[in-house]
């Protein structure tokens, strides 16, 4: 089978789940009409992608059967893609986004972060809330409280199987798929000097629109080794970040295992696995209104967002 993804679009009449084939979206309802095997009704609803993640064993079998059929029908002209004018929505709005801080050695050093040896350490995770989530093409709003708005491309793992105290070697069996996340950060708001607590991850990371995600989810079977994936982020057409997930300190497997010692991981949870070197802070440059960010990960897709000052 060729490459495929699944996500959500908005044609003006509401959110609808879709298959992504060759960078085009195909409405799930139309895929069924074209002769795909029967799907569960919940998968066709506006929250269909979330329902599929909650039912991943069955949903992935269906996707594996439906995608080649849809591809064949599309080639024959019997199945049309959704119009280019349709907005790509976030694949779904995760309730919990767990994010790894300082997970690439070169990024740690550009930020002036000194890390303990891995053997004496564990992952450092923080949370982004669901209000941060936007999709491909949506606008990142720059709040007036920050002068240091920054970008962070990251591979995001989407959980498809519940688990607590997941062994490292089983961790990838809990991943339904992967997507791209841009962990937008207000560097000046992420630190505090008016309290004894030096960091304020909530204020630095959780403003509305601070998590572009998408453009769709690629099932995990298409990325069998998440530690060998190339990623790149451009600002106004200039490459800023270019690296591979091979340079992570804590692997995707280790992060999932660690998180599951604290919480029961649930289908639909997202793990943003950390950003490589090349962020604005390391370069002494920050985002301004009108800047265009393109975050792309090999085998997944491109996530494009423009920055605009928040209207007061
Ligand atoms: Mn990050």
Protein model, in words:
The chain is of the alpha+beta class. It has two domains: 5-88, no CATH class; 90-309, Fumarylacetoacetase-like, C-terminal domain (Fumarylacetoacetate hydrolase, domain 2). The chain is built from seven helices and 18 strands. Strands 6-5-16-10-11-13-7 form a seven-stranded mixed β-sheet. A five-stranded mixed β-sheet has the order 8-18-17-14-15, with no helix packed on it. Strands 3-2-1-4 form a four-stranded antiparallel β-sheet. The termini are far apart. The mean pLDDT is 97. Manganese (II) ion is lined by residues 99, 152, 154, 183, 272, 274-275.
Descriptive terms for the model:
2 domains; globular; 312 residues; seven-stranded mixed β-sheet; five-stranded mixed β-sheet; binds manganese (II) ion; alpha+beta; 18 strands; Fumarylacetoacetate hydrolase, domain 2; 18% helix
Radius of gyration: 19 Å
CATH architecture of the largest domain: Alpha-Beta Complex
Strand composition percent = 25-35%
CATH class type of the largest domain:
Alpha Beta
Query: What is the number of strand segments?
Result: 18
**Distance N terminus to C terminus?**
49 Å
Q: Which structural class should the secondary elements be placed in?
A: alpha+beta
Q: What small molecules does the structure contain? A: manganese (II) ion
Proportion in helices: 10-25%
